[in-house]
Specification:
alpha+beta; 6 helices; nine-stranded antiparallel beta sheet
Amino acid sequence: MKLIFQKSDLISGINIVMKAVSSKTTMSILECILIDATEGKIQFVANDMELGIETGVKGEIIEAGSIAIDAKIFSEIVRKLPDSDVVFEVYDETKANITCENAKFNILVKSADDFSNLPTIVKKDKITISEYSLREIIKQTAFTINEANKNKVLTGELFEVKGDQLKVVALDEFRIAIRNIQLKEEYGNFKVLVPGKSLNEISKILTGDMEDEVNIYFTGNHILFEFGDTKVVSRLIESSNYFDTDKMISSDYKTKIDINKKELTECIDRATLLIKEGDRKPVFFTMKDTELELSINTFIGSMNEVIPVSKEGSDMMISFNPKFIIDILRVLENEQVSLYFTNPKAPCFIRDEENSYIYVVLPVVQ
């Protein structure tokens, strides 16, 4: 086996598949990248048994073959090579030579037969969206996910397709994030629960181009994302006991304010200067007439600030964990945002008129 790469192409391929290399395992093969050049093209593959990634890498095949190599060692060697062509040679199934100008490495490798290939996906139920849309969906919902949560349902995002509508839901014990997307055509009706970790890794690979598309295939146990020269396969989370978020969303409200997102974000950000790490002091929202007064009182000191708003309905005072509000504001692109309130003990809703996004935040009850 002999391959020649440009260093930049080699690093690009490694960076993509490294996201599916296991960092905590007793199986050394899961710490490897498979380099496969047996079918007239070069493919890099990594698979930690939960998330698998395969991507095409530009290079010249002098002699075909396939081998598995320790991902971390391979990555570190390539990064420190000169910016020149890299020659990768394997003479048997135990050692590989990596040569770049005057630098030469000889490292141990493993047989490709020992590598766990990606699961075969039946390409039946699918949707197609732009890379930009998928990356935005993930950015605007995944911040609610705690991957360490003992409740597996709360570590994933629900992807639900109904005809030409895609609904994506993520939630924790205190908030809900929902994105509704109009698809370009009619599809079937299906839903799956995708691990948040997988989605976060996918978002790092996507270019975010409006013109580039992602094909997403749904099965009973896996979801497959195909874009460009890359395939990402993720195992799914059991979703039969997922929360019925439709029952948690209300259109009723007693108070609504429209406010400049930047002003509100900066105001809350200033208020958090008075909160020590680990402290759970809430920020108070007091709505009167045409203004919102935001205030906080902690062991460090106190602060209050008034922001002009457009208000409908009753005056009200309600308090929130400031992080929960600011996390939402930072992922929204709108200059103006609308906040809906029912009473000081009920959730706040942040949504646009089209319901393309809906966020639900529980208040801090005093």
